[in-house]
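Let's inspect a concrete specimen:
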Amino acid sequence: MERLRIEGVKAMKFKEIYFNNRAGQTVLSVNEKKGLKLAHIYSIHELNEAEQANIQDGLWGLEEKTPANVLDESFFRKLHKMLFAQVWKWAGEYRQSEKNIGIEAWKVPTEIAKLIDDTQYWLEHKSYPRNELLAHFHHRLVSIHPFPNGNGRFSRILTNLLCREQDWQEPNWKSSLPPDERRKVYIEALRSADLRDYEKLYNYFL
């Protein structure tokens, strides 16, 4: 009985990691939650710390593993795995479940391929100035929401890598703002773009 009580408490704490009212938070499916590799984690704070440590490790060796062309579908999956594989078993695998954010799961591979083709065309034909191209690329990537979780961080890092490849200045992601305000400005710009109003996102990437 005591063991069941302890397991019940752990399950409640486990649930708290994924179900909160933070704007833009992705809810994981039952199977995705089972992909957590670290049994000692029972709070969102602990999860964030573990993921951030994984991201730092991934970024540490990223330069030598980055291909000449980052607009490559296999690199998208490889990058996500580098950033989250210490924490999640499904890191680098496209999601199979529907989310409160993003397109239908079965469309993800096709839409990623379309995004890559479109971005290569924009670059080749200079279709947009730097800030507008980054806005469209980043918004499309976030809107696809290819992975179960970590899409915002993955998309920001991939956007930085695209800038490096093009010898462009990387976005500052409003790093001078406090974290809560930074997140608010970012999400507001993305949500405006969802409604086909890209002005905030264009300005965000200036």
Remarks:
- Residues 23 and 187 are 8 Å apart (CA to CA).
- Residues 108-125 form the longest helix (18 residues).
- The two ends are 60 Å apart (CA to CA).
- Confidence is low (pLDDT under 50) at residues 1-9.
